[in-house]
Amino acid sequence: MPPEIAITTSAFGADAVRSQGQAAWLDLIAAAGATHVEIRAELFNADPDLAALRDAIAAADLGCVYSVPLELWPEAGAGLSPRLPQALAEARQLGADTLKVSLGHYRPATDLRALAEWLDDSGPQLLVENDQTAQGGRVEPLRAFIQAARAAGLPVGLTFDVGNWRWQDEDPLQAARLLGPDVRYLHCKAVRRRAGGLHAVPPEAADLLAWQGLLAHFPAGLRRAIEFPLLGTDLLAETRRQVAALRTLDAPAYEERRHG
Whole-structure pTM over 0.90, yes or no? Predict the structure, then answer.
């Protein structure tokens, strides 16, 4: 089976998505050959109609991932985010099989029973992503959390964002070696320093080869997502090209094709 490919709505530009609505991009995402859309909570206008969006996603024959800018532990030494139950409920309303959040200020001694109360095998799957912050974008806190979650039997996993490690000067390959078995979703974006800051950009050949090296440390057939800008006069053709690149990334003949 070919791997599932998601496209984040943010790839089409925050301003355009906010003005047109996230449903406006579903047909393009499906036509490009993707299997899932990643809906971004931060791109909603006030009071989104989640049921209507769920129906539109189903009509486009797409699966759904729901991304919420939520830290599980928003303050050091404080309790679990009170926003988590609402985010889980919204994910269910959307028909999402996955809810993606950030770690926040987790400490190794944190009691995970409050988190366990909100999770069960019926879903959505809760995935914790390495973000761009000092508290949630470094390997060791994420490793401590996922080890504690596994010991407690919690149905959680990790989203591995290949570009976000740059914000904390972490090595993506070392992160893949340490976290790989618990990764369930791969966020793909190249990162370049421009105008004094780091920015997500479309991948070049060297980026794709580096991502291929990471895949050896993850479960086979890992779902992966485009989270870099999709640009071009023929947006559908460009999106199709990028979807195909991610889908064939771990095919046995990929490296030979790149060098052939």
Answer: yes
